[in-house]
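Let's study today's protein:

:::
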Amino acid sequence: RSVLAGLGRKAGVMPIDPDNAEFRPNRFDRIVAREILHQVIDKKKLFRSLSLAMKKRGQLMMTDFMLAKPGEIQPEVVTWMAGEPRPSQPWSIDEFRAAANEMQFQIFICEDKSDEFQRLILDGWSRFQAAVAATPLPADLVPLTWPEAERWARCIAALQSGGLRYYRIVGTTHISHD
C-alpha cells in the first residue's frame, strides 16, 4: 500500500524478526504492528525496542490477540495457540497496559474489536466460498484450504470463548531517546 500510494521511500514497510528486532533510536514517526506481539517470547524487549525506535510524539498503531485475564487460558485458547503457524504466547490486556506505561507510551485508543474481527473472518470465508462456487479450485488445491479453514475456526472458537480478545491500540510516546 505504501508503494502504491507513491510513498515507498518515505513510508517504507519492512518485515522484522520480532524476537531479535533492534532499531536505531528516534528513527520512526509511526510504527504499525499487526498481530505480532502474541508471537514474541520477550514482549517487553520488543516493546522497549519499538519505544526507543520512535521519535518524540511518535505514534504506535497496532492490532493483536490478547488474553482477557492474566494467566487465565481457556481450553479453546490453548487449542488456538497450538495451531498457529508461529508459537503464540499472548499476554493480557492488563500486562500490555502495564508495559505501555513502563515504556512511557500514552495509549489513546484501546478497544476490543473481537466481534468485528470474527465478522471479518466469516465474511472472508463466505467470499471465498462464493468464488469457489463460481470457479471451482483445481482438485490438487482443495486439500491445501483445509488447514487454513481449521486455523480460522480455532481462532473464532477462542474469541467466542471470551478468553482470547482482539484489540486495536493507538498510542504515542512523548519522550525523546537521546
Remarks:
- The chain has a mean pLDDT of 88.
- The two ends are 32 Å apart (CA to CA).
- The first strand starts at residue 28 and ends at 34.
- Residues 31 and 60 are 5 Å apart (CA to CA).
